[in-house]
Design brief:
Layout lengths: L4 E8 L3 H19 L3 E5 L4 H7 L7 H5 L4 E6 L9 H13 L4 E7 L17 E7 L3 E10 L7 E7 L2 H18 L6 E6 L7 H13 L6 E6 H10 L6 E4 L1 H14 L7 E5 L7 E5 L16 H13 L3 H17 L13 H10 L2
Parallel strand pairs: 1-2, 1-3, 3-12, 5-10, 8-9, 8-10
Antiparallel strand pairs: 4-5, 4-11, 6-7, 11-12
The protein binds 3-isopropylmalic acid and manganese (II) ion.
EC number: 1.1.1.85
GO molecular function, one term: NAD binding
Cofactor: Mg(2+); Mn(2+)
């Protein structure tokens, strides 16, 4: 028998544990149906622990996670913890230490989900953003001069490396090939080459070089500002987008809105290298004001589990979960907003299981 899928689970803060519970419920059901086994180990990392111990990612924490096949993260963010501490100390720290250089964010409008764009339906909104996840302004390079004086200067440096952009661009081309869009395979580089003439020139040249290895894929380019317009006006234009960390952060929030909000958007932080460990998460935050009320939407969390399965050796199980999600959004749920779904958090989890 195949060895069990070993999962590290970090439920996190606020409503994180509630949506994680639903994702795990669905995992239990699909494992039974598809006949695979798994083990979970839960880590109590997040705001509560930080308030007690002062630790965000405990010493040796990333090494501990390297022993797993994948990581599932609920949500981090606690009202009593200053903004930035958990985001940087836990989430970004894990992405960096585990070198999860691909941030994969599907922008897919599920059936039945309300879209703020007039006249657009699921047939128009179905693309994927591949965001670089380890460099750019996120590298944490910068500093102050004459801090707290009237002459203060601050720098925050965007760092791009040939290796860093090449590996994620190559992954994005491979992904575009596998995705095999019947409308034609196209990878759009989103950057700002007209202004960021050093760093994004490196991205541009690397993109052109790597594109030569993928003659079947149309290598396309958009400036990031234009991309924001097209995402609203013609989202059907896109197949796969590859972009820098900072721009990817911004355009994927726009993406989340056109696909129906944070209640449905999920993402993966992927290290595709041999021995790499990837982490999947719903995109929404910990929504502390809804904690314990059974009103938060678990669809994003369940979709994150579907992604985890897809990328961790159980693609059939992942696809089946994705299918069930779409049946539930398409035929059952009134809304994707907390408290307005027509069902509670747990009931939505049950519905997905019933539709597997
Ligand atoms: C995201 C989040 C994070 C980011 C924050 C919480 C640091 O916004 O996953 O997009 O900026 O990457
Ligand atoms: Mn973000």
């Amino acid at each position: 028998m195949a060895s069990p899928l070993k999962l590290a689970v970090i439920p996190g803060d606020g409503t994180g544990p509630e949506v994680t519970a639903e994702a795990l419920k669905v995992l239990a059901a699909i494992a039974k149906l598809e006949g695979f086994t798994y083990e979970t180990t839960t880590f109590d990392w997040g705001g509560e622990r930080y308030l007690k111990t002062g630790e965000t990612l405990p010493a040796g924490g990333a090494d501990e996670l390297r022993k797993f096949d994948a990581i599932y993260l609920g949500a981090v963010g606690h009202p009593d913890v200053k903004p930035g501490i958990l985001e940087k100390g836990l989430l970004l720290e894990l992405r960096f230490q585990l070198d999860q250089y691909v941030n994969l964010r599907p922008v897919k409008l599920f059936p039945g989900v309300e879209c703020p764009l007039v006249g657009k339906g699921p047939e128009h909104i179905d693309f994927v953003v591949v965001r670089e996840n380890t460099e750019d302004m996120y590298a944490g390079i910068g500093g102050w001069l004459k801090k707290h004086t009237a002459d203060e200067v601050a720098t925050q440096t965007a760092v791009y490396t040939r290796k860093g952009c090449e590996r994620v661009i190559r992954w994005a081309f491979d992904y575009t090939m596998k995705r095999n869009n019947p409308k034609g395979k196209m990878l759009t580089l989103v950057a700002k080459t007209n202004v960021l003439t050093y760093g994004h020139d490196l991205w541009w040249r690397t993109f052109q070089d790597v594109a030569k290895d993928y003659p079947e894929v149309k290598a396309d380019y958009n400036h990031v500002d234009a991309c924001c317009m097209w995402m609203v006006k013609n989202p059907e234009y896109y197949d796969v987008i590859v972009t820098t960390n900072m721009f990817g952060d911004i355009i994927t929030d726009l993406g989340a809105m056109i696909q129906g909000g944070l209640g449905v958007a999920s993402g993966g932080n992927i290290n595709p290298d041999k021995g790499g460990v990837s982490m999947y998460e719903p995109m929404g935050g910990s929504a502390p004001k809804y904690t314990g009320q059974n009103v938060i939407n678990p669809i994003a969390a369940i979709a994150a589990m579907s992604m985890l399965l897809e990328h961790s050796g159980q693609p059939k199980a992942g696809a089946r979960v994705m299918d069930a999600i779409q049946k539930v959004t398409g035929t059952k749920m009134k809304s994707q907003n907390a408290g307005k779904m027509g069902y509670g958090t747990k009931e939505v989890g049950d519905l997905v299981i019933a539709h597997l």
